[in-house]
Amino acid sequence: MQLRDTVKMSFIGLSSHKSRSALTILGIVIGITSIILVMSIGQSAQQLIVGQIQGLGPNNIYILPGRQPSGPSGFAGSLLTDSIKQRDIDALKKTSNVPDAVMVEAMVTGPGVASYGPEVYSATLLGGDENMAALFNISIGEGAMFTAEDVADKNAVAVIGQTVAQKLFGLSSPIGEKIKIKDKSLRIIGVVAPKGSSSIINFDEAILTPYSTAQEYILGINYFQRVMIQASSTDTISNVISDATAVLRADHNITDPVKDDFYIQTQADLVNTIGTITTVLTLLLSSIAAISLIVGGVGIMNIMFVSVTERTREIGLRKAVGATNNDILLQFLIEAVMLTFTGGLVGIILGTLFNIATVFIVNNFLGINFPFIFSYTGAILGVTVSTAIGFAFGIIPARTAARKSPIEALRYE
Question: Does 293 share its domain with 364?
Fold first, then answer.
């Protein structure tokens, strides 16, 4: 028999049981749909996060307390250390120490449950200096940013985000009003212009105060959780890192780099870290989704065995008129591959449609600029894996059909 005749007979065999064929590939469809959806959303999330990080400025360098995290426990420990103090900030701000630094921003952060009369809103408290707006590329829509004098005098002032203003004050202007955080009253002097989620820090939901005020009256700490340094250009980043490291080691009396109680990250480091995390999570979730492919493959094997039993007389008749074992083997194998290949195509289409729906919902209802990405890798992988599963799980039923004796097959009822 010619190959096209075998393919035609396989198609006729499948189309004669449309409902059973559709139910048979259901596991494959679900598995491929899940893989396409997970990989596409994973790549979209990675692009979104990377874009947000890069939006903070390619020349920014981050100094964090503690040692470089090596796992979950190390990461938690780095957040709880108090190695960076005011004397370190003063030393880093000296032009003679770090000549290529344009700006040095010391930051503290914590929960900012704010109240105004009966209204309460859980915001993020960010403590910084007068350069915070310039460093994070945010603008003040109403009022003004706090000044260096406010930082030095620990003045109880705050600049709030748009969401905070709407939740606490509604349509009224918050300028001059006072909100309370942990029994400390802060006078509102400014409102951040709408920024949305274009940054890894959502300034719409933040309360900005001088770091000295946050340390003294709200958080009760005398250290900093993060320092951001803006280099004069991307070419001077390595110089800034070298100079900042030397300053901190000298200030902390550290001679052995292994004993550093701080670590430095650049935008490139953050992008690589985020990329690694999202890739691992995507692969993990895709592996879990692939379990349904195995289930689908077992289902196809069972149905093919049933099909072989139901078509025993057909097999005997074909062998009686000259069909070889290879012809029978090829026909049933092609049927199995056609089932899984079709399931893979349907899964790709459904996965893409679900991905479009997810992006639409996130963009329109959550206000996040979530990009749509079609995972070509997932599509190629889906078709390849589904076809391979059809071959792997179809070969045994096909061989069973090919080995049937024509005489016994013709007698089968």
Answer: yes
Listed ranges 19-23, 207-211, 347-351; the one with the highest mean pLDDT: 207-211
DSSP string, 41-107: HHHHHHHHHHHHHHHT-TTEEEEEESSPP-SHHHHHHHHT-----HHHHHHHH-TTTSTTEEEEEEE
Q: Is 202 helix (H, G, I), strand (E, B) or coil?
A: coil
**DSSP letter for each residue of 17-34:** THHHHHHHTHHHHHHHHH
pTM of the model: 0.59
Q: What are the tens digits of pLDDT across the range 304-317?
A: 777 767 667 776 77
More confident residue, 139 or 19: 139
72 DSSP β-pair partners: none
Domain encompassing residue 206: 82-260
Q: Quick one: average pLDDT of 226-237?
A: 86
Would you say residue 300 lies in a domain? yes
* Structural domain count, the chain: 2
Judged against a pLDDT cut of 50, whether residue 73 lies above it is answered with no
Could you tell me if 322 and 179 lie in one domain? no
Predicted confidence (pLDDT) at residue 338 exceeds the cutoff of 50: yes
Q: Are residues 256 and 284 in the same domain?
A: no
In a domain, 72, yes or no: no
Q: CA-CA distance, 140 to 188, in Å (whole number)?
A: 12
- Residue whose C-alpha is closest to residue 186's, from 211, 205, 159: 159
Same-domain pairing of 87 and 216: yes
